[in-house]
Fold this protein.
Amino acid sequence: MKIFISILAILITTFAQAQDAIKKVIVENYYISDANDATDTTGGLLVAGSNTYRIFIQLEKGYKLTAIYGDVKHQLKISSTANFFNNTDRGKTFAKDISKSNYSSNTTALDTWLTLGQTTKNSTKTYFGILKSQDTDGSFIGGVNNDAGLLKNNDSYAGIPITNADGMETMDTLPTNWVNNGIIDVLSGADSTIFGSIKAGNQFISNNAILRNSGVSGVNSDSNQILVAQLTTKGEISFELNIEVLSPTGTAIKYVAQSSSDSADAKHSGWLKYPFDCGCKDPRYFEYNSEYICADNSACHNKIVCGCMDPVACNFDPNANLNIQALCCYPGSCADRDISLVCPKLVSDNKKMIIFPSPAGNHITVETNVDNYADIKVEVYNSYGKMEFEKSFGKQSGDISQDLNISAMEPGIYMIHLLIGNSILSKTFIKL
């Protein structure tokens, strides 16, 4: 039992990871624009085939999201291989500022923006982002302004049509104290970034930007998925987000997309960088890393084989690549275990291999019997596991007797391995 506990402790130390507040990040395919959407001239040019993505950060239950940011150590980055679409008519930098009634106007519902959960409000209700698959209250997107076919594409790649489920529902607990910096010009109030419609762009990078509120959880408190951005573009998106969360006990914790030596005040999370890094997620392999977001089995090369790697031990495992010293068993030192149970082969080996004399002087004779022709080799190790002597005898069969000159070896206890093909016979002897 003691050995089992020791091994378990080693494995836990090697592979265990502390639980993080971030469970995962979800990139939802919200909508795909079509030729009808491209005919809209009120909201600005929307290229047919543009994808609208929504980014949700899923936190552990009880945690709240308080900020997304970029600072001097960690950049906030959102980019695409093509320009982002911003509605020039009624679009906003932050989704909370879009009036609920405007979601039924032209292509406002596809605007590019940032948020911390909230998507819109009217005089009586405040709405927050939720996955379309979890939306149960229908949709207020579309309406009389969309009779020409705007926002009605039902491409299966984008899932549920947004005119059936808009991905917005109300919550009773509302965030307060909204603060933003580094995106909207403080003097003019204009937004010339990818979240505004002043000029087209395909990238936002900042080391001095923040969107903050008092803290928000997901519409569904159990899944706790919080919407942070909506991005519309025909290109391939990528992002690096840094966030601050509030624990159930009120502790503020920062998570960043890129770890660095001077990031002691923040934890790294692979979920905050997209496209997600893929690698070996099988803990049975040395290449395993818990921070990989998606599995790539081709990255798993070296399977872990635990065992005793001390060649002096009677239970030496030549196939092991992770040494568990607590497993090693030696004559007279087997961690309170019965050596005949740990190394039953040792008993039979004593019958198969004879060493004499012991104690030995300058010479020792090794005798055994080999049923079939096999390569014969002798290795002798000292009590520290260092090889002191080795000799090969080629292929042999039948009764074998070999004299070994050990005059150069110091007095002490030695382990001799007789290698017969793929088999190993082991035995200890004393040199005077």
Summary: The longest strand covers residues 363-381. The helical segments are 2-15, 339-342, 344-352.
